Amino acid sequence: MSDTGQGRRLADFIGSWRLERQIRHGDGSVARFDGRAEWRAEGGGALCLETGTLTLPDGVAVQAERRYLWDEALQVRFQDGRFFHAVPPLGGRVAHDCPPDRYEATYDFAEWPRWRCTWRVRGPRKDYAMHGLYAPEG
């Protein structure tokens, strides 16, 4: 996990990370995700696999998993290949429209190798803020 002075590169993410995520809904209810995110080099890019336990606002806990594809330019795609967003190498803001909802995120690498990603999702179907903290495992 190097610091190139040019910002983050895909190689910086390869490996296993502890992931803690809080999801605060517009109605005030809170869910939590506790698990890990693993970036595995694959096909000139990387597969990001998030696995863990999602605890819903009513206390019910379920196993959760999500996969994303990352490329050398830090472009993130959904597992089916659709473009999601591009991670700013120095950190910063991104957006993704999924009509009628809008996803806006901020990547914060200031405390690297611990880093944060915060999503704010608004629209007629969704209203939540999701705060994720990543820390290297081991």
TrEMBL record:
Instruction: Report the InterPro entries cross-referenced here.
Output: DUF6314
Query: Pfam families per the record?
Result: DUF6314 (PF19834)
Q: Which domain of life is it from?
A: Bacteria
Name all DUF6314 domain ranges.
13-135
Name of the protein in question: DUF6314 domain-containing protein
Tell me which species this is from. Citreimonas salinaria
